Amino acid sequence: MKSSEISNYLDTSYKYGFITEIEKEFFPKGINSSIVKFLALKKKEPKYLSLNRLKSYKFWKQMYFPNWIEYDIPKITFSDIQYYSIPKKNSSSLEEINPEILEVFTKLGIPLSEQKQLANVAIDAVFDSVSISTTYKEKLAKYGVIFSSISLAIKYYLKLVKKFFGKVVSLVDNFFTALNSSIFSDGSFCYIGQNIKSPLELSSYFRINDKSSGQFERTLIIAENNSEVSYLEGCTAPEYKETQLHAAVVELITFKNGIIKYSTIQNWYGGNSQGFGGIYNLVTKRGLCSGKLSKILWTQVEVGSSITWKYPSCILLGEESIGEFFSVALTKNFQQADTGTKMYHLGKKTKSKIISKGISSDFSQNSYRGLVKFSKTAFFSRNFSQCDSFLLGDYCTVFTYPYLDVYNKYSIIEHEAKISKLNDDQLFYLQQRGISIESAIGIIINGFCKDILVMLPLEFALEANKLLSLKLEYNIG
Amino acid sequence: MNQKKNILTISNFKLFIGNKSILNNLNLSINENEIHILMGPNGSGKTTLSKFLTGYSDYTFFDGSIQYLGNNLSELSTENRANEGLFLAFQYPPEIPGVTNYDFLRIIYNQKQKILNKTELTPIDFFEHIIPLCKDLKISQEFLMRNFNDGFSGGEKKKNEILQMVLLDPKLIILDEIDSGLDRDAIKIIFEYINKYRNKNSSLLIITHNPKILQYLEFTKVHILLNGNIIKTGGFDIVENLELYGYDFFTNLIE
Fold this sequence. Notes:
The complex is a heterodimer of chains A (about 475) and B (about 260). Chain A is α/β, with parallel strands linked by helices and about 475 residues long.
């Protein structure tokens, strides 16, 4: 089948692209030390944090925009971005929240009002630069689970924040973390106490609403000894012709036997069919398995953003700790996705597993970039990687960049990779069974991604299915 | 005698791939509840005919007319032909990685139900529907849970085609060498299954090399396809000649 024909069958509509006019409070465009100071003041932050912000800002001023990537990245004018924008009449109590914002989240399928809250999921809803509301906060606290916005965590749990914030991803780890550390405005904080399994799925939903503002949030999740949590983030943005920047930092820490399952359904606006607009999604995500037998599992479904650079990584420090990474990245139009993971094996008998599925269509570029490193101390460790790519058409590209760094000869590494194209025989066969060509493509792609989709929490697996533009009625697992 | 309802009429049909003529002035008519056997040497155009009838579009030129249930077949898309009851059991069905056989069968079954405005089945209800159908084909539950045709034996793939045929309850069934590569027991199972489960009003066009399968069928006619044309139509006598002398017997007829 011809490339041009295929794109006719892919659903390019973006149903989260609606724009909401909301009265807002914002800082002038651009970033400088006064803006940073002003933000710290506005948020009434402790001195330790505002000093960190300023330190990060000074570092950032001396850093350069990364130039290691092969793609054409349009120049980002950092002075043209609004770094802080919040809706007016903002309040953390549900009754006083601007009803227009509640309406936005209801439209997005995330009702926040108490009667309609999702039953099995606690949600922290972040709108532009601020967390609007966190559901089930009190209920979770009774179980020994702290789930709140990072701003409130700084206010009420400063000791915990101080202990862990910036410890896995240093404030100035790279260009974008330095920017984030200086100007981050909100985000989510989760702390799971010892021997506790979170009774609910925790979830953060990020919405960029404003045309000229960026979103710079931080997420910090800590799982103490023998604890377990499943966390999911979702993100969407309106359709604008202009691009917006999203530079987030996510840090995870697990202690002995602790488990964090972190899933992402990334559906930022990806730009139109001419390649205009969309989010630049340049984020740093890293987890530290510090205790024995601790485990971090990253699952991501990446369908949005005009540019994605994202490498959710694991530092496997604890003995027999486990890091896993499961990813589906689907690119359309002119989207560019460069995503993968880094697995740093430091402890003995550590294990990691990487399964990445990239699907590329139209004129998009889709890369897997990953590093597996066995340090000298990583005796008897193992890694298995599988990177599969699927081409839908003649003008898209897929790349695989697997980096392997092995300093321990007692460890085992395995790597598999496969590239496939849409197969006419399969399409004809499915059509002969009465299935429309759209559904046929959907079934084939769904089969290709199945290993990943089954890893998602059940409530979101179906949503992810739909996102992959599969309009078929199809049950996973 | 009752006038039987016509299902398929092919008249003066020609088909080219590039400059090569594949089918040449072909005529064939199939009525309700008839079983037609199409035989011919390799490369005579049998599979091409079955693929064209079901909508495979990779052909450069065709001429003549094909009426299916009174409609011009070439105006129907592949999936509409299927939804109108045209079914092809493929000689080499493809694999679909990552999609379980169970999900696949339920998807196509529900697709048919949707077209007929009937209730679609949930994964649980479908189980009750499909298990009895599997029994007579001698296939296990485990077979349903594997990925579609992934690592299936030749026999399992063919049984899977027949299972789909029964699920979709088609009006015209084309079997493209359903017997090839099967052992005798499997052939017997498959044809007894077809006789038992197919809709009694449905018609069959069976493409085969193997005259032995005819013992399982009350067929209407046998056609010999040679050089893109049906050169002989008849009953069991044709098969006897074929068994004795091979296709040469018919080649000589032309000359």
